[in-house]
Description:
Blueprint: E1 42-47, E2 52-59, H1 76-95, E3 103-112, E4 126-138, E5 146-155, E6 158-169, H2 172-184, E7 196-198, E8 214-217, E9 229-232, H3 251-268, E10 277-286, E11 297-302, E12 311-319, E13 322-333
Antiparallel strand pairs: 1-2, 2-4, 3-6, 3-10, 4-5, 5-6, 7-8, 8-9, 9-11, 10-13, 11-12, 12-13
Amino acid sequence: xxxxxxxxxxxxxxxxxxxxxxxxxxxxxxxxxxxxxxxxxxxxxxxxxxxxxxxxxxxxxxxxxxxxxxxxxxxxxxxxxxxxxxxxxxxxxxxxxxxxxxxxxxxxxxxxxxxxxxxxxxxxxxxxxxxxxxxxxxxxxxxxxxxxxxxxxxxxxxxxxxxxxxxxxxxxxxxxxxxxxxxxxxxxxxxxxxxxxxxxxxxxxxxxxxxxxxxxxxxxxxxxxxxxxxxxxxxxxxxxxxxxxxxxxxxxxxxxxxxxxxxxxxxxxxxxxxxxxxxxxxxxxxxxxxxxxxxxxxxxxxxxxxxxxxxxxxxxxxxxxxxxxxxxxxxxxxxxxxxxxxxxxxxx
Length: 348
């Protein structure tokens, strides 16, 4: 296969010599754990050594979620979703992990190394290359138990993002027993969801109200502990977050909730003048599965801006009084300088 990256685009270190990746079509949707073809972003993959994997991806320009923001920059979390799907692809296509074997993402860390890699001319799709290296592994194939992946991403020849992920695997029988035990320890039978009024889309940097995933209680009878606390307002029919059936709140939905809580809190704290910001960093430790039956509270704490202008916002998701996700979102306000020309940075 030959690379379809145009000759006018800058070439970086990915893919390395001898590895050819294309953008002609997506991989089979089962490999990316997507039901809808339009939700598959990985276009090709190749294995280098036993522990090195290379992938290419492209995000649709008119995607209902990832294009829903002010023009000027692509959404870095869109490429993070492509990186998440890439993990599934490399596991199933190259590592020998069977499709259907349950596994969970226990921790993710990503950092945008060059925000200008996400600059867009408004007509080009976000696409790039990803290299994953297996840093640690326990077991192989269907007997794999755990794995640590380290990754780097390039967009338009520019080093765009570094990533790491910690994975845990188990058999279907073990998963079913584990989930049954977990749910038995929680008051799911008696739980009642608080009616939620979604925040206005512009307050979280979105334009489409359907893409807002956090809100506040509809009635004063249920109050939150601070002005920087929000409730998950999940739409179970959202085409991106609920592409297929789940027995728990999906991880990508919780990460988007973290981002929106960080944006809303940073604006309320006066750290940002507008809600338009790039999510240039994300850390998330998934401590437990979040259940659909109970309120999922997002608590945000805004930190001081760094020398590079990034605003760190610590976010904790709690359910039934216990933390489910602990992490941080780093925001770069939209006031950051834009390049004079995006011709070499828009990722095509």
